[in-house]
Amino acid sequence: xxxxxxxxxxxxxxxxxxxTDFNLFSISGKDISAVSWELPNAPLKxxxxxxxxxxxxxxxxxxxxEAIYTFVVLSAEQPDNAIVNHRKTWGLLxxxxxxxxxxxxxxxxxxxxxxxxxxxxxGSVKLNSVGVIESLINSGEKVFFSTIQSTxxxxxxxxxxxxxxxxxxxxxxNGVVFFALGRYDEPDCEIVAxxxxxxxxxxxxx
Length: 206
Known about the structure:
The protein is an alpha+beta fold. It is 22% helix and 28% strand. It has 4 helices and 8 strands, in the order E-E-H-E-H-E-E-H-E-H-E-E. Strands 1-2-8-7-6-3-5-4 form an 8-stranded antiparallel β-sheet. Strand 4 (103-112) and strand 5 (117-126) form a beta hairpin. The mean pLDDT is 88.
């Protein structure tokens, strides 16, 4: 990446830091740190995919042709009707124009909410695929990406009950979770990486 990228670091995501209040995203974890890369004057909707790809490659150069995992949580609860139960998460995103065909190993998770259904989707995306990551970031939903060091673990083999369980599984396997800070129409582009301190060393400096 270029020197135009501003890097921020949080020693403990549970404490006050210069990146964000992670409690607002319902993100927590013991001994979890964070690093963010910000590209000023570069809209997230256009540059988010490139910035995320740069961070992942910086974290592990051997992933250029590999897949990263994604976990999507629809922001609003959905009505408990036949259409929603049939289309589920990935079907609803497909109708909205998200490039779900570029997401492999797709799985859906539906749980009861206070007023309807909470829908989530799990899958993997080829890092060198064109426009798929961008489409997910620009969906307006809560979208997280991750990668782990071990090649013997497939994080899509089982379906977690919620996003916190998914993140914990990533961190237990020495992985890193990435997400875009702010909405897709933000004027600046910022991607946050979450993980154990030792796994974020390569992301502290460009």
